Amino acid sequence: xxxxxxxxxxxxxxxxxxxxxxxxxxxxxxxxxxxxxxxxxxxxxxxxxxxxxxxxxxxxxxxxxxxxxxxxxxxxxxxxxxxxxxxxxxxxxxxxxxxxxxxxxxxxxxxxxxxxxxxxxxxxxxxxxxxxxxxx
Amino acid sequence: xxxxxxxxxxxxxxxxxxxxxxxxxxxxxxxxxxxxxxxxxxxxxxxxxxxxxxxxxxxxxxxxxxxxxxxxxxxxxxxxxxxxxxxxxxxxxxxxxxxxxxxxxxxxxxxxxxxxxxxxxxxxxxxxxxxxxxxxxxxxxxxxxxxxxxxxxxxxxxxxxxxxxxxxxxxxxxxxxxxxxxxxxxxxxxxxxxxxxxxxxxxxxxxxxxxxxxxxxxxxxxxxxxxxxxxxxxxxxxxxxxxxxxxxxxxxxxxxxxxxxxxxxxxxxxxxxxxxxxxxxxxxxxxxxxxxxxxxxxxxxxxxxxxxxxxxxxxxxxxxxxxxxxxxxxxxxxxxxxxxxxxxxxxxxxxxxxxxxxxxxxxxxxxxxxxxxxxxxxxxxx
Lengths: 136, 382
What we know:
Largest sheet of chain A: 4 strands, antiparallel
Order of helices and strands of chain A: EHEEHEEEEHE
Helix content of chain A: 10-25%
Number of strands of chain A: 8
Oligomer: heterodimer
Structural class of chain A: alpha+beta
Strand content of chain B: 25-35%
Largest interface: A-B, 20 and 28 residues
Structural class of chain B: alpha+beta
Shape of chain B: globular
Largest sheet of chain B: 10 strands, mixed
Number of helices of chain A: 3
Distance between the termini of chain B: 53 Å
Strand content of chain A: 25-35%
Radius of gyration of chain A: 17 Å
Shape of chain A: elongated
């Protein structure tokens, strides 16, 4: 099943429209809200993951959003960590809600699953070695 | 029953039987305490965690004309110079006067160990015998006469588990603690940790030779705030922070892999220090303690959102629970995260084992035991 993470930027006049409702109802998509900053009457930002649909449904949903005046971009930011400098302490895993950064038995080495990462950037500051960065 | 001399003789002959404190758990399961105590000579323990109470004494040598340095900066980080003319102490947590939180004493120490050049600045009031009033030059570890780590408090025997019950994120030396018991952090190597494997300090004492930061070091004294009277569980393991060690070792032998500057967000600079301590298996009782496993070690969960000396607690959990990835507090599942590196601690325990197997590292009997009865005083405001 197709999945896509996108960043939506709403002009102020659209922040009160039930756009996600239409994505569910009209395009049969499952929406996972990863990050949201919406204040009525001001520009809003929403990071969502669209799933549960075929590739064409996701594309149709995105086209619909664009028609409504929403600016749509793929999630292009990415978390990278310099493994050679990592001491595998685990401090970053403490703030990683989606469990993209994970440390566990048997080897207790830090593992990063990019697919799970929502690029919230909490780990960047939580890393005592300062070796986690965001790339664009 | 074995003696230090007998074990050292076996080390010299390359015949000593050595296991790490994790490996010994399986050996005991298979062979029982009695046979294992007879066959095994040494158990190696280790930890690699943030240890703020660390720093180094440096002697710069004399310039011409000479200076009695009264203020010293290394890469803009102040070092304490209120000792003799060209001696200074650089503390791990001291912050740069120009870069603030981004750089501190720990970074200077790591850079020295990496062989990098450091800018030394010093000022003085000038005396008849030390006329120079200021100096600015570059130094590196090889240029220094002496450079030794002297850490007043390392290798804590157990520590708190930290949570945050408030509704805002807090930033602590136990890492970033999420609101509403959103996470729990812990910071010892558990069953591999030095003083947890010798809970009554029967073999680790003043003069014990150890692995420190990749080189050889010694236990210099009991650590500051050494608290042998902490509550203990049925296995004799303190249920929160208890014994501590003051450690000393030659910086020139050390390796930056085991001495790493760290930054705790909105808290400050600290240093990860690698410590490995051998435990001689002199008798069955010492083996029993060294073979302790994570489910037999408890730690107390403290609420760090209460900024008081005495924090409320949520009872105890075992290290087996902490290592499972989550604990239950108030019927809620809270994910756990370590702050100290078990991966690196295992490397250290393994390296120390190798040193002993190769006959490069012999054991020392403490010249004096650590105190087993000592009260920790608080600071009262008078």
